[in-house]
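Comment on both lines for my students:
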Amino acid sequence: MGELVPDREGFLAAGENRVWWEFLGRGDREAVCLLNGLAMHTRAWYGVLPRLLDAYDVVLYDYLGQGLSSAPDEPCSIPEFAGYLPRVLDELGIAKCHAVGVSYGGFVAAEAARLFPDRLHTLTLSGILLSHEELFSMYQEISLRFYRGGPEVFELYTHYMYEKIFGEAFVAAMKESLPALRARFHDRYRDRTHALIRLTLAQDPFFASLDANLAGYAAFPGRVLVVPGAEDRTIPPWVQRKLLTVFRDARWEPIEGSGHVVYLEKPDAFFGVLRRFLAAKSTSF
């Protein structure tokens, strides 16, 4: 497969802001929407898309503060980000898709399942929690302190973050590449740390409404796949396993030797499990 180029792309209007979306595929197959982690953008998926594009169309979009979308320094919300999904699908003439959310994108995917269950075939979650956990709250708070601390503190954060989110095997194999990876993140956000702050603060009302919304998640009629990294230190597997008590038709498929970013650290394992799940007719596959 040569260099990937979207077959369709454009912007959604979101008040005075714009939301960037992309579509790659033929238009006559089931579509998978890959929902970004907090510091991702649509192009971050391109290295792994060949693992899907032979069989599925792919939908991508950036939240406010990411990629080519607007980055206003104003409050935003996870339900708002989920609300872009049916609008992008309408733009493309797609009735339903498979939603795949990694990390922060898992919150967005879960909200899409709660708010727009008729637009999803299935739901796949990786590196997400739908429970109140003190350690996660502490991790969020220290991340905000890094974002707000100025250039030197933010540069330090790029070391803290990458040493925390990846598993041992990935770091050992990619040790020489980590400085470049770190530098790209630093350069992308050093002049707009407000975007990281706003994206992170959007989690507060999400978790404040969590207990009230649990019934809505549980009502999702489709199949659910939970794919944690067995070495995830950001949201440990024992926390992610609680998702099985939230959704009524959920499958647990941990990926050994991976940290928080399973799709990147173990792409063969992640997309292998995902494709078997998407092709199956029941959660037992």
Remarks:
- The chain has one domain: 8-279.
- The domain at 8-279 is CATH 3.40.50.1820 (Rossmann fold).
- DSSP finds 13 helices and eight strands in the chain.
- The CA atoms of residues 146 and 156 lie 8 Å apart.
